[in-house]
Write the structure tokens for this entry.
Amino acid sequence: MYWNYACYVLVVYFWLSSYRGVVRYRPIYIHSSPQAITSLTMASLTEAQKEAIRSVPRLTAALSIAGSGSILCSIFRKVWKGEPEASLGRSLLLGLSLADFLSSLSYVVGDIAFPEGVGAGKGTQATCNLQGFFCNLQVGAAIYSGFLAWYYCFFIRYHWRRPSLKYVEQAAHLLSWGFVLSTGCASIAKHLYSPHWIRCYIAGPGSNPYFWGFFYAPIWLSMICGSIAMFLIYLYVRNIEARSLQHTFERSALHLQQISIRNEVSAGVVSGVSSSVSNDLPTMIHLREDFQRSRSTLSDLPKTQRVANQGLSYTVAFILCYTFPTTSRIWQTACCDPPYPIRLLATSFVGSQGFWNSMVYYVLPHLQNYWARRQRKAAQVIREESSKDEVNWHSSAAAQEQHQPPPEGAHKIGQREEAS
């Protein structure tokens, strides 16, 4: 399990080594020829800013390759050993990781795939087309992310089981690979791929509609669909928690009412003020303790809540990767070139989905188990304190009953009984 963290360390080390030894002194090329059109103006950036925008995507893409590769190896190892499909959406996660793994390679290669004579290019137009085709696979990863969100929604909210969910997996595979393969081949046939800033992709005169239709439209649609699915899951889980809390509170109130009646009967005739005080004290203690106990029990609810958190985390990772690229594109379309921080964040996150998916795949289960252990310990402490408070109150009530003076007229009744 821990070998993927070693991969991250090695990737960072080699990237820093290459940055010190090679990248820092490589000249910056600003695309100005018709074969190398870029949509971002570079005149306003310093040399250090340009170099950062060229180098950071290689680091994040390398981390994404390591993350997606570790998920692929884990899934293939489980399939090879014949382990049952314990995790939800394993087939979808396999397709998502494969598409992200291949698309991240295009960001690691960078401008080396450009035709020779264009920037730092050492390839041909064929290598540029190949890089653009692989880069287009990240749209397939985005479609997989949207389907994965609805997969969790169908399982949690609508109670679909695995035979029915197989249809969702088949639709996701067909639509994702069908879309990216068809649009990739169409882009090559129409000669749309050309050097575009840090990679070869759809660029050039008249290519803007294709860029929006083949890239941003499916990604934004997947983001909207995934957000709707997660919102439906949130409403469903919140409704379950509210009903469970109400049920637990009603049971606690009934139990406390029975205890109060029993205490009044055992205490006998007591003055109104002292009876009110003595009954309010245990009621307040039990209400407070049972309310806290009910909250700690709800956090341990279910498998439903654990699965919902996992699905939400995958969707958040997907939306996070395309938030800044979307902001940059909208900014550029609306008025002018976006500021340098937006550009840097856009290039940093656009190819890093595999890294965040691996965090959800490996780290989130450990965090959930740790949180569940803390909740169980907190509930145990609350139960122990509540039992101690109840024992102390009963002992104090018994002592009070022993030292209580007899009611008025009780000695006369005793004298009459002795005389008779």
